[in-house]
Amino acid sequence: MPQSNQLKHTDKVAISSFTEPNTITETTPLITLQRIGFEVSSRGIGESKFSSKTSNDSQILIKLPSKPSSAKRTGWLSGARSAKAASHTQSAAHESKTLLTDISLQILPNEKISVIGPNGAGKSTLMKLILGLIEPSSGKISRHPNLKLGYVPQKFTVPAILPLRVEDLLAQTTKRVTATEQAYLYERLSVTQLLKKQVIHLSGGETQRILLARSLLSKPNLLVLDEPMQGLDPESERWLYEFIDDLPAFLRCAMVVVSHDLHWVMRGSRRVICLNKHICCEGQPSDLGVSEEFKKLFGHQYEQPYIHKPHDCLHHGSQLS
User: Fold this and answer.
1) CB-based contact 230:152 (threshold 8 Å)
2) Considering only CA atoms, which of 261, 253, 198, 254 is closest in space to residue 228?
3) Which of 17, 132, 142, 226 would disulfide-bridge 32, Cβ 3.0–4.6 Å?
């Protein structure tokens, strides 16, 4: 009997020290990309490139690829069609365009990553791959089972004939915040006074605030922002950057931000990925700023910001003799 009790105690210890496989820790990757490549034909992204999954936050409808006909073709017509299909396939292969190649990266919890690169570098394509809106042409993407995505798109337009109020748009997401947390979020982003307003009547800054609020209502553990400041006035841009930099504890999450603002990227990011259809360089801003790849792409655009240092002059309290 004592032996039986000891075994039961041992079992309890083993169970209490066991970590659930779906538990996210600080070192658990939220998403892993391995040797990812993405190609598109000259006609655009084919239906087979789209994912059959949709993002709950983005509410984007993805058209499913149509199934090929199961009917058998016989005789010369089958051969003719097969030859034509093979010719078309070879032609399409020659016309395909590579948007991304050999992309490998991991995103950890609470990590802030900035993605920079010239126009046409594949930044938005990379965001769509992370979101699961398109499937890679090669490589593998692994997502944690408890991954919760939030998304603030580069552009958001609503048809003028659609009577969509702000409160209706915010209702189209899964809310995981408490009433107190929602009130705090609405106050910080100045949402409350816009709830009855039509979305089509919002300014650029108001629209981005609403989209950011909508994405955070679901408490994502990975927030993707695809050039969220594009087209905003300087004041709105500064205000939103400050909000992102200082998220309250209950909203903190990993972030991937596509930005053209190199000064904010080099100041406010812990990890920067420089993209030009492949990862040219990545690392901490202090290391990236001196790399040759970075200088080739941005050396003519980026200069170290001026840092004012005390010196002998009246506004520092010195007395001129």
Assistant:
1) no
2) 261
3) 142
